[in-house]
Amino acid sequence: MVARGFEGVRPAHGFAFVRLAPDGASVGELAVRLGVTKQAASQMVEELVRKGYVERRAAEEAAAEVVGEWGGKWGEVLGEGGVRVLREGLGRVGGGGGVRPVW
């Protein structure tokens, strides 16, 4: 992945990507999925935003922000169609909420 420009991706990020794939998630939802505190999830989100892997967007019906827009880094390598395929695949893998790390 590093050779393709994806530096600093850790295994824990994969679990976050699975949760974010279908339609995004709030930091609180991500914390529940990962089994970590909101603070830890927020730190992970900030890292992913800083690295260009995800972007924040305003939630439609809540005061909380949702992390869900996949950052430009993915599009640069995969193109728009590739990003769509990746998100759909990850959504199928974790669709019901079954994929969770064992810390």
TrEMBL record:
On the tree of life, the source organism's domain of life is Bacteria
**SUPFAM superfamilies recorded for this chain?**
Winged helix' DNA-binding domain
User: Which residue ranges does the record assign to the HTH marR-type domain?
Assistant: 18-61
From which residue to which does any coiled coil extend?
Answer: none
Lineage here is: Bacteria, Bacillati, Actinomycetota, Actinomycetes, Kitasatosporales
The entry lists its GO molecular-function terms as: DNA-binding transcription factor activity
The entry's protein name is MarR family transcriptional regulator
Q: What organism does the UniProt record list as the source?
A: Streptomyces roseirectus
* Pfam entry (one): MarR_2
